[in-house]
Amino acid sequence: MVYIQAMIPRHLNILLADDDIDDCLFFKTVVGSFPLPTVLSYVHDGEQLMKLLKESIAILPHILFLDLNMPRKNGFECLTEIKHDDKLKALPVIMYSTSSERDLTDRLYDNGAYHFIRKPSDFLQFKKVVHYSLTLIMQGNSVQGTRNNFILNVENNLIRPEAF
Amino acid sequence: MAITIKSSDEQLILVREELCFEKEANAKLFADLIVARNELSFQKDEQGKRAAELGIANIELAFENGEKEKRAIELGIANVELIFQNNEKEKRAAELGIANLELAFQNDEKEQRAIELGIANKELVFQNEEKEKRAAELIIANKELLAFTYISSHDLQEPLRKIQMFSSVILTDEANKLSETGKYNIERIQLAAKRMQQLINDLLDFSRITTTELTFEKTELYTIIEDVIAELKDTILEKQATIDAADLGSANVIAFQFRQLIYNLISNALKFSKPALPSHIIIKSRVVKGTHLDKELGSLEREYFHLTIKDNGIGFDGQFKERIFGVFQQLHNKEMFGGTGIGLAIVKKIVENHNGSITASSELGRGATFDIHIPIRELL
Question: Domain A12-162 belongs to what topology?
Answer without folding.
Answer: Rossmann fold (3.40.50)
